[in-house]
Amino acid sequence: MGSQILTLADVWPDDPRAMIVGLNPAPESVAAGHYYQGRAGRGQLLKLADTGLFPRPSGPHFEGVALASGVGFTDIVKRPSVGEGDVTKEEIRYGSAQLADKLGSAGMGLVICVFRHPVRALLGTDTGPGLQPTITSWGGRVFRMPGPYDKRENVQRVLQQLSSIVSAL
């Protein structure tokens, strides 16, 4: 939005299969220089690895294994903050429009949201965990991960759906 800030660089695969989209980076992730360094975020990425989207990394960072599998990372709002309550509606509107243009230009067919907030920002609606029925403005699909503390049976059901999607990519 015209201000210089320290944030995470987008990770764009050369041959994209999917993009993991967050609302905005956490300060601890920006300090580490890697996406999803918090406990909940790392747990969500391990679940994604278990669906076959990319292999589990040997260390704490996921970008390398994800990128090698055609999966990238980005955020709607680039400004780091502790929580979604610190992000303004104006930032979300601006970031969503910018990101939709980038994702559309890349022909991104699958967007995976680790948490719920980016789904509403990209689609204007959220029907809960799983593949969203609404198609993006560029013709892509959005998948919302179950919450990090969701019931085990819900997590298994939703991740099985993603495993089926991933195997068809």
UniProtKB/TrEMBL annotation:
This is Uracil-DNA glycosylase family protein. Keywords: DNA damage, DNA repair, Hydrolase. Residues 13-125 form the Uracil-DNA glycosylase-like domain. Pfam families: UDG (PF03167). It comes from Agromyces aurantiacus.
